[in-house]
Design goal:
This protein is mainly beta and 583 residues long. Among the domains are: 2-143, no CATH class; 551-581, no CATH class. It is 0% helix and 33% strand. The chain has no helices and 51 strands.
């Protein structure tokens, strides 16, 4: 593969009678005051066959404007990163231009260009991949339109922007269930992008969801007559939303409706017996409590199906009335066609991110496998992935590893060594050319961003190069007077932290393994259910049981990891409770 030099690839101004590409930036609906940093990535078109020569440390070409060359995404292919940075003096305008010049030797390459505008804490706008070719006065428009939902933030991979509602999960938002503005009725919840009443099917055909009762037609439901929770007296029927005794007026408060249309406070004759309260005359001579009898539930001879119990004259599942097509599972009423917890059959749950469609778990039309068990993304972008190894979804959907990082066991690891902590970033070392974790808040050679070097006599403070007098400290230490006018780096009132130790308050800690400062000062892991491994709090599991390296034998078949005070590999599977499910 031929290598492309960068000797005169960049310029910031010039006439239009030469081979060039002008990147004409337009902020569109973005306000310049909202933009803190603009990142533009350049790559040589794949059809060219050439690549950039070598890593280039950050080089400033104008106030707040610079570029660097490195492997930005861990693909092994070097790309150019151009930055316009407001924190180091660049002043954004609605439109501005950056000019690219081709190499001095060889034909000019075609380029692919993408850009991202960022605010103080998150992304504001991104572009699609743009194509550009060098020519006399050649240019491309790089338009950055505000992608924040309702002007607040850019929605993550599993969210959809619904105007007026912000970023929402369509699979769980009752006001936007399955689509923006698709609101569930009163008392209904949204799960799996479907409205549900008492965990089962949603209410249709003019019925409403009554808490504990299920879907009810308020016009003819004697338990919810005219409104949820309004029962008719025993023996009465609900007609047009009003309780009636054999078509006549409703009985008084203490009365029940007897055959023939009479109301009685003493009871109704049944052969030689008298039925009272919720009893009904069955067979002409037997009084049965149809409110709680599984064989005569609400009416003589009405038997509740297996798994249901009669309560209040209705057959209920776990205390709830199910819709006609719903099954009764241990979780309650369930529509086996679209229930993510009971998909196709009771107890068959879909993997994370999958949706139950027609009784089958799907991720954008495909079932995820054990190799790629998690469904990430939203809408047409949904896809199955392995969050243990995917750098774009590392550990969870949408968690992206930085340049030079790989995803190992669900954690972003820098150059295959460790997870970068706190204000650290994975950068190329200027002395060795090898990537490693550097603290961007204090590292003199990587101040605020990889490759940005502070001048002699400057210190890197909070990611900004500043001229200082006295000592220059790293590892979280601060410059303090010690025994008079002499200044020295110290951790609070104690000796300075060195090596892998970092100053948290007044104590040197190892953020790779410290349970109370895991990955950053003050970040505590749950003592009984989590471990601090490589600077990240992870739940104890088959691969990390009593310690970060303690793996149980048998993969959960012959052994499991018991949680809590019994955190250890066990052969008795009955003792197991996954830590990720709580204690």
């Amino acid at each position: 593969m031929r290598m492309l030099g960068l000797v005169v690839l960049f310029a910031v101004a010039g006439c239009n009678q030469r081979q060039e590409i002008q990147l004409r930036y337009q902020l569109g609906t973005l306000m310049p005051a909202d933009v803190v940093r603009l990142e533009t990535v350049l790559d040589i078109d794949a059809s060219d066959g050439r690549t950039f020569t070598a890593d280039q440390p950050y080089r400033q070409v104008a106030t707040g404007v610079g570029y660097e060359v490195r492997d930005l995404d861990g693909s092994g292919r070097r790309k150019v990163l151009i930055t316009h940075d407001g924190t180091i003096g660049y002043e954004f305008a609605k439109t501005f231009v950056f000019t690219l010049l081709p190499p001095v030797t060889g034909p000019a390459p075609k380029l692919s260009v993408s850009a991202r505008a960022a605010g103080v804490s998150d992304t504001l706008a991104t572009t699609s991949l743009l194509s550009a070719a060098f020519g006399k006065g050649a240019s491309i428009d790089v338009t950055l339109t505000d992608q924040r939902c309702d002007g607040v933030r850019v929605c993550n991979g599993n969210e959809t922007c619904c105007p007026g509602s912000g970023c929402v999960r369509l699979d769980g938002d009752a006001a936007n269930c399955g689509g923006c503005g698709m609101s569930c009725g009163a008392n209904q919840a949204c799960s799996g992008s479907a409205c549900r009443c008492n965990s089962g099917s949603g209410c249709e055909g003019g019925t409403v969801c009554c808490a504990g009762q299920g879907c009810a037609d308020l016009q003819n439901d004697s338990a919810n007559c005219g409104g949820c929770g309004i029962p008719c007296h025993p023996g009465e029927t609900c007609v047009g939303g009003a309780c009636k005794c054999n078509g006549g007026a409703a009985c008084a408060a203490a009365e029940i409706c007897c055959a023939g249309g009479s109301c009685s406070s003493a009871g109704c004759a049944c052969g030689g017996n008298t039925c009272t309260g919720t009893q009904k005359c069955c067979g002409g001579s037997t009084c049965l409590d149809v409110a709680n009898d599984n064989n005569n539930c609400g009416a003589c001879g009405k038997v509740c199906p297996t798994g249901l119990a009669c309560a209040g004259g209705k057959c209920k599942c776990q205390g709830f009335v199910c819709s006609g097509a719903d099954a009764c599972c241990s979780t309650g009423c369930a529509n086996l066609q679209n229930d993510n917890v009971n998909c196709g059959m009771c107890g068959h749950g879909c993997n994370l991110g999958e949706t139950c469609v027609a009784g089958a778990c799907q991720c954008n039309g495909t079932a995820c496998t054990t190799k790629e068990p998690v469904c990430c993304g939203a809408g047409a972008a949904k896809a199955c992935t392995n969050t243990d190894a995917d750098i774009a979804n590392c550990g969870s959907c949408g968690t992206t590893c930085a340049a030079f990082e790989s995803c190992t066991s669900g954690h972003c690891i820098c150059a295959g060594t460790r997870h970068c902590l706190g204000t650290e970033s994975c950068c190329t070392a200027a002395t060795t050319g090898q990537p490693g974790c550097f603290d961007l808040s204090s590292d003199l050679a990587n101040c605020g961003q990889c490759g940005k070097t502070c001048s002699t006599g400057q210190a890197c403070q909070s990611g900004v190069c500043k001229t200082v007098s006295g000592c220059i400290c790293t590892n979280g230490n601060s410059c303090s007077s010690s025994g008079g006018a002499t200044q020295a780096c110290m951790c609070g009132t104690n000796a300075a932290c060195t090596g892998t130790q970092y100053c948290c308050g007044n104590t040197c800690v190892d953020r790779q393994s410290d349970m109370n400062n895991c990955g950053g000062c003050g970040n505590s892991c749950e003592a009984s259910s989590q471990l601090c491994c490589s600077g990240a709090c992870i739940y104890r599991d088959l691969q990390h049981c009593a310690s970060c390296t303690d793996a149980c034998q048998g993969g959960g078949v012959s052994q499991c990891c018991a949680c809590g005070d019994r955190s250890a590999c066990r052969s008795n599977l009955a003792l197991c409770l996954p830590c990720s499910l709580g204690k």
